[in-house]
Amino acid sequence: MSRYAYVNGRYLPFRDAMVHVEDRGYQFADAVYEVCEVRAGRLIDERRHLDRLERSLNAIRLRLPMSRAALGVVLREVVARNRIGFGMVYLQISRGVARRDLAFPVPERAPCIVVTARALNRVRLEALAAAGIAVVSVPDDRWGRVDIKTVGLLPNVLARQTAIEKGAREAWLVDESGAVTEGASTNAWIVTGDGRLVTRHADRAILGGITRSVLFDAVKALGLTIEERRFALAEAYAAREAFITSATQNVMPVVRIDGRVIGDGKPGPVATTLRQEFHRFAETG
Ligand code: PMP
């Protein structure tokens, strides 16, 4: 099946979808992005993702180059042209193309906007969720503003690669105090021995996940207690359950951390229930 991408106003066949070598996203990671889940061809939590996109753009002093409504149309068009039933849509906005120089270009350039979409293997994801995944810890050596969703993901790339090479699916990043911040592309959660959910508070040291924030509503509705605080790797090893969240993986149970078995080594009831209930609390466009 042919794939299409949106690049600066045009829907192009995938093989022709290119940006210039002096695009500032390519040169400096001077760009922000979003990833939305697509289910039954519909965008999940579009409003929240576009809110976060606007926060990221503000933080790097870039403006949304089209109205939110127009951007929504583009996202849906890319999903439709690629015939995505279950999958994801990716959006990236850079500070445009200019002679390579750190300072913002003068005059301001038109931002470069790229939107792609692809199908995800739902059966495989459900099988992973049923078995639970392994994670390994690595030092969190990222910059101080990882709350901004920029494409500057080299530390995340290296962390994920380390995880894969150690037979795990995700890396958990550990700060200098020994606390878990988040995953390479996911938020990290544990369930304590007395059944409380713990995830790190959202400051500048983690990306405030949309899945994470939707889960807050689900957790409250289900009568569970959440604590937003630091948790040490040692506390995670001793947890009753652990899981990760992201737009494309939803709630994904973790059954091993650094080779140590979590709980009874199977996905726990809290993670399993939250995974089942998630879409009752998410917005479907
Ligand atoms: N943390 C990081 C570092 C991420 O890259 C992501 C995924 N974009 C998340 C957390 C999860 O965010 P979301 O639930 O919005 O996908």
- Write down the overall mean pLDDT: 97
Oligomeric state: single chain
Q: Can you give the helix content as a percent range?
A: 25-40%
SSE order, as H and E?
EEHEEHHEEHEHEEEEHEEHEEEH
> What is the top-level CATH class of the largest domain?
Alpha Beta
CATH topology of the largest domain: D-amino Acid Aminotransferase, Chain A, domain 2
CATH superfamily of the largest domain: D-amino Acid Aminotransferase, subunit A, domain 2
Q: Which CATH architecture of the largest domain?
A: Alpha-Beta Barrel
Structural class: alpha+beta
* Tally of structural domains: 2
Give the percentage of residues in beta strands: 25-35%
Which geometry do the CA atoms define? globular
Count every helix, treating DSSP H or I runs of 4 or more residues as helices: 8
Q: Strand tally, please?
A: 16
- The Cα radius of gyration reads 19 Å
The low-confidence runs, each spanning 5 or more residues with pLDDT under 50, are none
What features would you highlight for this structure?
16 strands, alpha+beta, 2 domains, 6-stranded antiparallel β-sheet, D-amino Acid Aminotransferase, Chain A, domain 1, 285 residues, binds 4'-deoxy-4'-aminopyridoxal-5'-phosphate, D-amino Acid Aminotransferase, Chain A, domain 2, 8 helices, 10-stranded mixed β-sheet
Structure report:
With 285 residues, the protein is α+β, with helices and mostly antiparallel strands. The chain has helices at 24-28, 46-59, 68-81, 122-131, 154-165, 210-221, 233-237, 269-281, and strands at residues 4-7, 10-13, 31-39, 42-43, 87-94, 112-119, 133-139, 170-174, 179-183, 187-191, 197-199, 226-228, 231-232, 241-246, 250-257, 260-261. Strands 7, 8, 9, 10, 11, 12, 13, 14, 15 and 16 form a ten-stranded mixed β-sheet that branches. It has a six-stranded antiparallel β-sheet with strand order 2-1-6-5-3-4. The relative contact order is 0.15. The model has no long low-confidence stretch (mean pLDDT 97).
